[in-house]
Fold L,D-transpeptidase.
Amino acid sequence: MKYLYTSIVALLAVAIVVGAATYIHKHNSNVAASAAEQTKQKKTAHHTASSQTKSDTTKKKSTKKTIDWNAPSGGPYPTLSANEKLWIDVSINDQKVYIKHNNKTIYTMITSSGLDTNPDNSTPEGTFHVQAERGTWFYSPKYKEGAEYWVSWKNHGEFLFHSVPMTEDKKVIPADAKKLGQKDSHGCFHLTIPDAKWIYDHIPTGTKVVVHK
């Protein structure tokens, strides 16, 4: 009887030990599985966020608006009073030409300044004045491009406000025209055709031009 009692106790002890071991194994397996699932979820979330960021970046690039080079870039032009004294403020960082009366901006034009890849295609900074040289058309064999409505502001015909670049037969060069709003020129200021004509028609010789970053 004592032997039977001892055997039963021993079997119960073994059962308890085996049960505990099984529980611990299952618990550890569940913990490991949970950790693995959390890691997987984190990776998935990171991948999704990364894909979303790339998608947003691509979308921004693809939705970049092309400026209509046949239209005023800042809406309707202002009505000028007789002998209204204006000056021109050009921001290279903004790629904008601000037409000003005193300290008030009365019109904003989108431009393309010099590429700045070397001294030959950089736009000079400083204070200048519109010069006497201007015209409705020019063509440069050196650069194989021309433009309409040009107005000189430095070096008497070297640095100009003018329309987007054109071929010798006066057709707009789309590759350049589409870059309005970013650096693209040999140092001049590219403008939409109507903007260039507005400066040609309304900005007199002697008008101050300030060019800065």
